[in-house]
Description:
Largest sheet: 4 strands, mixed
Distance between the termini: 58 Å
Structural class: alpha+beta
Number of domains: 2
Helix content: 40-55%
Low-confidence stretches: none
Number of strands: 9
Mean pLDDT: 94
Amino acid sequence: MDKKPVKGEYLEVLLRSPRTVFSTKDAALMWSEEKEQTVTARLNKYVKAGKLIRIRRGIYAKDNNYDRFEMATKIYTPSYISFETVLTRAGINFQYYDSIFVASYVTRAIEVPGQKISFIRMKDYVLSNTAGIEHAEGYSIAGKERAFLDRIYISKDYHFDHLDVLDWDKVFGILPVYNNKRMEKKVREYFGHYKSTKI
């Protein structure tokens, strides 16, 4: 936003935004407001009036129909949706999980109203490399190959139900991001197993 909104326009600026979830910092940027205390006070006023929803400290939503993935990646940044959340949607794993799995700089399990979120710590050089990560509206999400590699990176032995959907050229293209010999060996084992089932 080029100019600071005038009184009465602040809420409208938030509601016009394509975001369904925003942080105090996001609101400060949209409002061109430098004082965090002013932003927090204004947001709290809108929550008390029932015009916004506070999901947790510093995280707000326009209404209860907010995007759960967008919310999960706002809590700790940088972060992106990965692991079982992506693997299950891609058909690589068949087991259902009620948590959203997020790659982040911390390991933590939290619960916000109606949703469990599991944050899994990745090293900075892995987390900051965007190879194999897609940027959706309001959040980032690993492609199935990146999610497959993320899971191998943090788990020594892991069972994947269905590897047919993976693009192995992409898998081997993203693999150098991790700079991990154990992982390279394990990926070759999974690839060997996949190829043996195709004979």
